Amino acid sequence: MTDENGEFIITAKNPFDMMTVKVSARLYADKNFSRLDSGATRHELAMTEGAALTGRVLLDDKPLAGVTVGVSAVDRQSGSYLGHFEIGTGTDGHFEFVNLPPNADFNLYTLMSTMKELGSISPRQIHTGKDGETIDAGDLAVVPGHRLAGRVVLSDDQPVPPKTRLLIGREDAWDSTQVTLDPDGNFEVAGIPPGIISVSVRARGYHVSARNLSIDMMNPFRLIGRVDRDITGLVFMLDKGPEERPDYRHIDPEYNQIRNRTLRGAEGAPDHSRDWTVSGRVLDSKTKEPIQKFRVTPGQSDNFNRTGWSSMRAVDGGNGVYKVYISKRVAQPLLKAEAEGYLPGGMEILPQDATNADVVLKKGTGPAGTVTSADGDPILGATVVLLGDDRNEAGLESSGELTVYGNEGAAHKTDIIGNFAFKPVWGMKSLAAASSNGFGVVSLASFATNSKIVLEPYGKITGTLQRTSGPGTNETLDLMFAGVDAPAINLSRQAETGAKGHFTFDRVPSGHLQISSRKMLNGGRFHSWTTEPLQEVDVKPGQTLDVNITAADRAAADTVTVNASQPPEPKAIPGVEVKGVVLLPNGKPASADVALQVEGKYLGLGKGAFNGNGGNDGLMASSAADGSFTLPMYEGAQSVIALNEEGYAQVSLQQLKASPRVTLQKWGRIEGMLRVGRHLGTNEQVVLNAAQTRWPGMNMHRKGRQTNDLAATNSASEVLQPPYFDFNAFLARTDAQGRFVITFVPPGEVTLARLVSAGQNSWTHSPLATVTVKAGETVVTNVGGTGRTVVGKIKFAESPGPGFANAFVQIVSPFSKFIRKAAELKTDEERDALYQSAEFQAATKERRYFSAALQPDGSFSAEDVLPGKYEINFQQRAMIQNGTTHTMFTAPEERTVPAAKDENDDSTVDLGEIVLEKTTMPIPKVAKSER
Fold first, then answer.
1. Which of 153, 316, 382, 631 is geometrically suited to a Cys-Cys bond with 371, CB 3.0 to 4.6 A?
2. Per-residue pLDDT, 304
3. CATH of the domain at 551
4. How many CB atoms lie within 10 A of CB 905?
5. Is the model more confident about 828 or about 295?
6. CA gap 439, 437 in Å, rounded
7. Gyration radius (Cα) of the chain, Å
8. Domain boundary, last residue among 143, 177, 206
9. Residue 478 in contact with residue 490, Cβ under 8 Å?
10. Residue 916 within a domain
């Protein structure tokens, strides 16, 4: 609550937290104020009157009085949700909302509890007007609702407890209703609006069974699915036992698709047409005999060191034999097997059917031991976390407490004598413990010989930051664990530099740490930043370490921008729509997702699905039962893309005007073997990209002015730009024979690249090959193995240069001359001519680039570099741009990588010492569309 002067104080847990505040006031619109600095900063929060919304509800063309109309913000994300509001209709069916948040998207609906059997108004999205403006939604006709009927059953054949209630909720509205089950568990609800519906029921001692086909894997207490017709005979099954805990660190790639399928319970047989079938044996490592009782769980991993397990798909096996199903949308499938008295075993498998995925388990138990102080006293209530390979599995808060992310079962509290015990977990590597007394971390290898974790007292870091031009004042510094063996724990430690550059970090754990400074991006808007490593330090237990840091001046927040060449935000064209019909490869109507591809809007392609926020702008839609779709028209629209699990199609707007039919082509598949130099590329990562190079300014110039004619948005000679390929969806890891498989590949030309480490938690792409994929076919290709290992050592002509820890070396085909030339050209036509020239197209097609991580002394080693001429440059991980230029460090002369003498030549190419000079590279201008 505010006082009489409108002032308030909210206490932050951490004095440097960013906070989101929602303000509600009579006669004003609710408003969220995001990412407010805590601490001494005083904020002025300006409220406005908001917008109004009116309309009328009609039933059989007559006013419907006494029903409740609601609006709920479309964006339901925490921190940005604008809320939901309700109002009743008068005798004339009229309703009026006042003081709604302005310029926002809302879903408009009627509440099920007041409509009952009458039906509902058709789901509708509205956009509120400006402050003081009234938007009239017009007459809203009530349409018949759907009927949902079925039975709740317990899998152990026990009767459903008396007075058990079933809750039905809507995903696109802040609306729910509930019914009480009859003695046999039956229910029937009329007037269900069309859309995505959730159904939940609670019975003590039971949880939702995984046999329900529409179980919500991220919220396993409910079913979720689409209701677009009457559904009867739904069997909602509950199993005996505690509720399943989902792993929120890694979302199943099928999650959105499953939510959009027809609501189903346990009444039908599972549909495994979208799954790989994997079977094998689980054996004892010593005897090689089958293990009699075990559980196998499928999962997935990605390049961000995240591992997710689908407990809903887990199966219990016996006599050493199992069969499990893995979604075909998973890029890198995993399996783990668990059995009592054994350590879990796991394996990566190729994304395909398999019959010999055998898992061998070793006997063993989980870690158990004691947490003590440095003096040897047992610690009561210390938090202990079992860590694996994932990054940022846990956090060490400023209070000195450990917290876990997404999986609460990974943390235990010590008892009165400091003891703790864990069940064994797949991938476990180390143990961390913390309390107000201190912090400790041990590897499981060392813990095996001494089952104690000693909490070493926290230390402190004080120091001064000195920039070239003077003290580094008013800077935000961050502290994190550093080094190859750094624990996977996030440190919530920030410090602010004072007027003389002084700073202090309190409650600092002992170990090897990195101090970094934040570089604010985009003029400090949105509180976005990148980090600039300043200095690595070693802190001993209980030590107060004084650090003096000297660093170059940083760019001012108001001059540092990212993606400075991005085009302006595209605008919708009122009254103009894009319409068509999606067909399956056999010519029948297709149920598919359809998106309008618009210049300046990110549109990502996943495995048979879109990734991106186009749905929030209305740029995505689902086709109707007859395959038809309608999308809004936008300036800069390029094409329409349609897809489902069976196929993919991309057509220009000009093609769509000539024929409204969009026929899907079957997905392709790539299988291959990777070599790195003269060796098999095992345990490497191969990624798929769209073949067409995206270069600032290309395809942005539109010939002719924008009109309401769809054909005017595409020139006859324009090459369609493919969507962005989602990184994790098209990432494959090679097995012990160097083999890899990539599925759900759109027909056409695509490129393969190897993922190369560019330093800690950073990777770049090393191109391998361009392949053409035909619809419904598998391309078999062997890639890599034709280049040479190139080594060298860089130094800067001017000292001091930037640090090596936040950068990598790039060996790239000569291309900088085109960058400079594009930046110097003055007109759109000149830039267009350059991009279409034979010289530029050839250089783009033949462009090669290879990256390598830098060692602390500036040395590097790049593998499988193809023979040719190259430029050598120093590339920072975050490209920071200043106005119309960015700063680079480049070798002034080109270097040549010679071809190998023969097929057995495995020698290294040593480029020696490479002196890099500081150069200012212009940013090519973006051609403005003539609209």
1. 382
2. 64
3. 2.60.40.10
4. 10
5. 295
6. 7
7. 30
8. 143
9. no
10. yes
Residue 383: which H helix or E strand, with range? Answer: strand 383-387
- Report the C-alpha gap between 172 and 195 in whole angstroms: 8
Q: Are residue 346 and residue 430 in the same domain, yes or no?
A: no
Identify the DSSP state of 557. T
Q: Structure tokens of 720?
A: 């369609």
Cis omega (within 30 of 0) for bond into 290: no
SS (H, E, C) 454-508: EEECCEEEEEEEEECCEECCCCEEEEEECCCCCCCEEECCEEECCCCCEEEEEEE
Statement to judge: residues 865 and 798 lie in one domain: yes
Domain range for 874 is 788-922
Question: Strand 368-373 to strand 452-455: parallel, antiparallel, or no bridges (unpaired)?
Answer: parallel
Dist. CA 437–CA 441, nearest whole Å: 14
- Closest to 878 in 3D by CA, of 768, 728, 793, 761: 761
C-alpha to C-alpha distance for 63 and 49, rounded to whole angstroms = 29
Burial class (CB in 10 A: 0-12, 13-18, 19+), 591: middle
Q: How far apart are CA 217 and CA 327, in angstroms?
A: 13
Q: What HEC string does 747-772 produce?
A: CEEEEEEEEEECCCCCEEEEEEEEEE
Q: Say yes or no: 340 and 386 in one domain.
A: no
Overall residue count recorded for the chain in this entry: 931
> What is the rounded CA–CA span in Å between residue 633 and residue 635?
7
Tokens of residue 263, six digits: 């609501």
Strand-by-strand arrangement of the 604-605 sheet: 610-611, 604-605, 724-725
Segment 701-715, tens digit of pLDDT: 333 333 334 444 444
**Count of C-beta atoms within a 10 Å radius of residue 176:** 15
CATH number of the domain bearing residue 354 = 2.60.40.1120
- 424 and 477, same domain (yes or no): no
Residue labelled with tokens 């007037």: 191
Nearest to 641 by CA among 753, 748, 752, 569: 748
3-class secondary-structure state, position 884: coil
Within-domain flag for 20: no
Give yes or no for a contact between 682 and 728, defined as CB atoms under 8 angstroms apart.
no
Strands 231-240 and 146-154: parallel
User: Average of pLDDT values for 667-685?
Assistant: 93
Domain boundary, last residue among 534, 561, 588: 561
How far, rounded to the nearest angstrom, does the alpha carbon of residue 236 sit from its chain's CA centroid? Answer: 32
- Over residues 265-316, the pLDDT tens digits come to 999 888 888 899 999 999 999 999 999 999 999 988 876 667 888 887 899 9
Question: Do 792 and 912 have their domain in common?
Answer: yes
- Residue bearing tokens 């409220």: 47
* Statement to judge: residues 312 and 385 lie in one domain: no
- Does residue 211 sit in the same domain as residue 251? yes
What is d(CA 856, CA 873) in angstroms, rounded to the nearest whole number?
Answer: 17
Instruction: For residue 680, tell me if it sits in a domain.
Output: no
User: What does each C-alpha distance from 197 to 190, 261, 609 come to in angstroms?
Assistant: 13, 11, 21
Q: How many domains does the chain have?
A: 6
Residues 241 and 178 in one domain: yes
Q: Under a CB-based contact definition with an 8 Å cutoff, are residues 316 and 324 in contact?
A: no
Q: Is residue 196 part of a domain?
A: yes
How far apart, in whole angstroms, are the C-alpha atoms of residue 184 and residue 434?
A: 51
Distance, CA of 785 to CA of 781 (rounded, Å): 13
Give the pTM.
0.76
Q: How far apart are CA 715 and CA 724, in angstroms?
A: 22
